[in-house]
């Protein structure tokens, strides 16, 4: 075990204490303090080396598989730490590029406080693409959380801190750590160490980001320095989670609703998550207005309803109930709320509080609200209730 003080003493006067790096110049902030961040297992220093700003990762405790994880970035026995005035030891470090930017957690908190929905919508699109790549890979990050993702000054999302990563070569081993509790499935144990350990945090972060993009005031009520909005240990009764589900249901956000539902799964391996994330990032084409033969037809899969043509699925099976398309719209039920979607799957009209709805005929549809039959107008022709 090594201390942060030992590293500071070595790095702030590194002459003769490195094998290959030469003298290290630790960057300082406006108050003259060394620039670094420290976690449970490592401290990362912002250094200037060879005219470039770099990161130097220094370990506070022994870590396994660093060579397999970091490859050539690992500098074995690079830095000499004094363990007493007369003795010391050479320790491993990881040299990487310094990514200018803020953590995803910091960026989200700032955007939510400013009610900046546009920035939040950009972040959620970027994260869903990153999450899809992670959950379909044969590797895993192992401690996926917003604090371990940098939003670069160029607008990209860059994961950092791969110490707890899973690689196929590690199959059969136990996990070196369990990740941050605020983002992990409560049932995760050290025996859970495979390519699926990022499923739960990916789903949780995606759900929180989509919720905040729809309603940034959720941050005022539920935002946390330890997590985003939810507490996995009591997810089913979590008020932020319940409010999120209601929000997605009310607005017809079927993909996000189904991803959110996965957070109550009894295991950390979330069945169907990859397919849902793929649907979330899929660019929806313009709704078609072709012949009757091109009209998508209802189909059911695993108890949920979607729409397809003879060639392909055009609306994924996400809904609890549905009617055939008429006049370019289909009535679908998500949870307890009815909506009308177009042939690309976009929600065009939501009917909260309606106990029953009918398909459109002649530009009008019948709905039952508060026990009364009402008539609504086609939203693409007259976008108002009548």
TrEMBL record:
InterPro entries: Kinase-like_dom_sf (IPR011009), Prot_kinase_dom (IPR000719), WG_beta_rep (IPR032774). One of its GO terms (molecular function) is ATP binding. Residues 1-300 form the Protein kinase domain. It comes from the Bacteria. PROSITE patterns: PROTEIN_KINASE_DOM. Keywords: Kinase, Transferase. Transmembrane segments: none annotated. This is Protein kinase.
């Amino acid at each position: 075990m090594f201390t942060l003080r030992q590293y500071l003493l070595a790095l702030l006067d590194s002459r003769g204490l490195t094998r290959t790096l030469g003298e290290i110049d630790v960057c300082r902030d406006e108050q003259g303090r060394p620039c670094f961040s420290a976690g449970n297992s490592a401290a990362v220093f912002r250094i200037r080396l060879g005219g470039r700003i770099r990161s130097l990762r220094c370990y506070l405790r022994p870590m396994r598989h660093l060579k397999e994880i970091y490859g050539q970035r690992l500098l074995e026995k690079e830095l000499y730490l004094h363990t007493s005035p007369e003795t010391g030891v050479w320790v491993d470090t990881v040299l990487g590029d310094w990514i200018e930017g803020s953590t995803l957690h910091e960026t989200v908190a700032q955007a939510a406080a400013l009610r900046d929905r546009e920035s939040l919508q950009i972040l959620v699109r970027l994260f869903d693409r990153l999450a899809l790549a992670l959950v379909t890979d044969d590797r895993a990050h192992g401690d996926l959380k917003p604090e371990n993702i940098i939003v670069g000054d160029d607008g990209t999302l860059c994961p950092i801190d791969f110490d707890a990563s899973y690689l196929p070569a590690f199959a059969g081993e136990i996990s070196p750590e369990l990740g941050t509790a605020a983002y992990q499935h409560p049932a995760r144990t050290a025996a859970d160490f495979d390519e699926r350990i990022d499923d739960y945090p990916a789903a949780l972060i995606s759900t929180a980001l989509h919720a905040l993009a729809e309603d940034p005031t959720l941050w005022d009520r539920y935002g946390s320095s330890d997590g985003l909005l939810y507490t996995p240990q009591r997810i089913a009764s979590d008020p932020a989670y319940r409010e999120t589900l209601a929000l997605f249901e009310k607005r017809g956000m079927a993909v996000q609703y189904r991803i959110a539902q996965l957070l109550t799964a009894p295991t950390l391996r979330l069945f169907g998550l990859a397919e849902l994330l793929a649907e979330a990032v899929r660019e929806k084409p313009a709704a078609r207005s072709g012949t009757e033969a091109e009209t998508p037809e209802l189909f059911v899969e695993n108890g949920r309803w979607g729409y397809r043509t003879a060639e392909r699925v055009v609306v994924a099976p996400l809904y609890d109930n549905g009617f055939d398309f008429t006049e370019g719209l289909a009535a679908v039920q998500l949870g307890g709320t009815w909506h009308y979607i177009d042939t690309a799957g976009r929600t065009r009209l939501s009917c909260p509080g309606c106990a029953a709805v009918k398909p459109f005929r002649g530009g009008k549809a019948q709905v039952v609200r508060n026990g009364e039959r009402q008539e609504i107008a086609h939203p693409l022709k007259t976008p108002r209730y009548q």
